[in-house]
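If your schedule permits, I should be very grateful for your opinion on a structural question. Thank you for your consideration; the sequence and its tokens are set out here:

===
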Amino acid sequence: MDEALLRAQLDRTLETTDFPELGPRYGGKVRDTYRHGDHLILITTDRISAFDHILRQTIPFKGQVLNQLAAYFFEQTEDVMPNHVVAVPDPNVTIATACTPVPIEFVVRGYLAGHAWRVYRSGRRTLCGQPLPDGLRESSRLPSPILTPATKAAEGHDEDISREEILQRGLLDAETFDRLAERALRLFERGTALATSRGLLLVDTKYEFGRRPDGEYVLIDEVHTPDSSRYYYADTYEERLRAGKPQRQLSKEFVREWLMEQGFMGQEGQVLPDLPDDFRIEVARRYIELYEAVTGQAFVPDTHPDPKRRIREAVTTWYAAAGTERS
């Protein structure tokens, strides 16, 4: 994408929203969520988080990329697991069925990377109760994908947790956990196939599930986006693995790596650094590159000068067309 367009967008990003007419608002790390009757109105902003901290600077078009990429993958996986999507009336907005979230993130890993590699490098050979063989190096393909669940922290760091701990704490019963674990592994299989068809490797990802009012469990939040997933380029994977070189990847791991270079890993007492404009533009490029790589479609940004006005009008128009008055 033209750098001038990205640079012009630096001062027109969507940092936060305030639409009281849409209902009560909950501000997450990236999304602003409004409860509207039986719906959730999910607005994906241009905020970016790392190490469970929201960075002070935003990323041009990031919200549009994430929301549209999630919509793409929800559609591509709905035969494996139904999802919460009702409509996508705006590049930044998804209207979804309000669900009761499952209090566990189902993290699936096919390769030894990121957090799993840092645990392995420290000498540990189990992760969330899953054994890890000796002799692996960073980015090694695991013998088979493993499930490494995590608790969903409202604040602070998510924590690794094993199946046994989940059952002991009463977070889920065995039948529900095993059913959702099986779906997570099937979703990862589908995501792997989709990535392979585009010359990519799906390294790891997380899935979140919720329970609809009718009792059915569905996929919620996002799926196979760069905020929830890590991708490597397949064509250089083996060569770089043999040479011990870092993989060419499409994810936000490079943002974490940049922060670590600045001495920040989210620990108490560390100062959160600011992102320079040139780096913000580079992050935007990476997000757009991933969108185009995994979908095979060109990313067409919406450059409306007032994204909040555009969003308000899109949501209002959708509800009017659906015959539902705003509360």
User: Anything to note?
Assistant: Residues 101-250 form a domain with the D-amino Acid Aminotransferase; Chain A, domain 1 fold (CATH 3.30.470.20). The chain has nine helices and 17 strands. The two ends are 40 Å apart (CA to CA).
